[in-house]
# Entry
Amino acid sequence: MSQLRKIKISVSKAKTFEQCKRKFYYQYILKLSTELKVYNALGSLVHLIFEKTFKKWLESNYQISLREAAQEAWQNCKGTKEWIDAEKFDSIKKAREYAVQYFKKYETEYMDESKPIRCEPKFVLPLQIDENLSAEVVGFIDRIDRIDNKKIWLLDYKTTNKVQYLDFFQLGIYTAACLHGPYRGYEIEAAYVLLKHGMKLKEMDSPNRTYMQEVEKMVKIVKEMDVTINETKLFPACFSKLCDYCDFQKRCYKDTGGPPKAVRQSFSKTGADTW
Ligand code: SF4
# Structure
């Protein structure tokens, strides 16, 4: 393994690898297709509505109202893949509810403090791991808002119910991409916007000070991924409660024999009086 190697990675790819190598193998090596779920369909449409609305508002240099921008965005979403997928789960009304709720909250609580400057910008964060291994972390940031000329918000919309499982890996990597890219020297605020929790923010504590630990986590994952893909080629299953939400559960249980069964103990009524 001495030749120069480069790994292209995203936050979700890294998280899948960390969660279960077998899942990673099915998703990113075999590239097996996944089934569309209601929460993915709803989340994708809400993301699209937000993206189109804030882009439109930004293009107008904030001259039209957010409501006008949202109305136009809504019309432009009709017929898109995200719209058709959401229709399959009868989720259009729900997506509208989330959008209306968020725009109202934005207008009353955040609009005076900050304004969107980028919607869904692509970033590339290069990492030199050692002399032979490098990585390119790629992704899209849902939204960047400007607070003042040296301070920005990084925002990521989340449709999950399980807020307790949200760590700051993703926001830490976004912070690194900004600080080592176009927002060098800026003060960063970063948060998840929790759509299923009244649009509350789950904020990362001092991103400028803490993001490096998330970068170090990414470096560790890249090193392990490199060894797994290029050397051991072993992708063991990691059975956990997350298996119930895994797209590849059927295939995995067939290939591996499923999770270890709990061994039933049978006890005789009286002890044998000896070990
Ligand atoms: S079912 Fe569980 S162990 Fe199997 S691939 Fe999915 S997450 Fe991994």
Observations:
- The mean pLDDT is 94.
- The first strand starts at residue 5 and ends at 9.
